[in-house]
Amino acid sequence: MKPRVLVRPVRETDGVELVAANLASIDVHEPWVYPCRDAAGFQAYLARSDGERSLGFVARERESGQIVGVVNINEIVRGLFQSAYLGYYGMAGWQGRGLMREAVAQVITHAFGTLGLHRLEANIQPGNAPSRALAQRLGFRQEGYSPRYLKIGGEWRDHERWAILAEEWHAPL
């Protein structure tokens, strides 16, 4: 079956559209994530997505070409660890169609295949039911709970730690 989502690394030409999609999705994103909302924020995101320590991916619906979400691989550690953090968020109007499941699955396959990583960890706020459900559907297991783990929206927030290993990954059809 042909993928409904095209995923590729973020690039300069995504800036205006990504900022607009993020602004239109504030009600979906907050309080879980606060992505770039202006040109300066986008430039900072693009600079962080350097391909060494972090990779940012834009997911577009194949037919329309519209941005449906973002998937990030952050804090890549090589050597004996071969691990990274996985983050993702979808855009308003695209929820409930399985498009982010496809996008995140493509990035996980890239992480374990092309990048040769061994482990991915997703840290999810306990009240973020859609993100928790997505992690579960993709085979992540909950490994623990971290109080006041990440500062998001100016507040230290609790997170659940979800993880998957390369040998556990089975890309959904």
Automatic annotation (TrEMBL):
Keywords: Acyltransferase, Transferase. The keyword Cytoplasm does not apply. It comes from the Bacteria. It holds the Pfam family Acetyltransf_3. PROSITE patterns: GNAT. Gene3D superfamilies: 3.40.630.30. GO terms for cellular component: cytoplasm. One of its GO terms (molecular function) is protein-N-terminal-alanine acetyltransferase activity. InterPro entries: Acyl_CoA_acyltransferase (IPR016181), GNAT_dom (IPR000182), N-acetyltransferase (IPR051531). The keyword tRNA processing does not apply. Residues 5-167 form the N-acetyltransferase domain. Belongs to the acetyltransferase family. RimJ subfamily. This is GNAT family N-acetyltransferase. It comes from Microvirga thermotolerans.
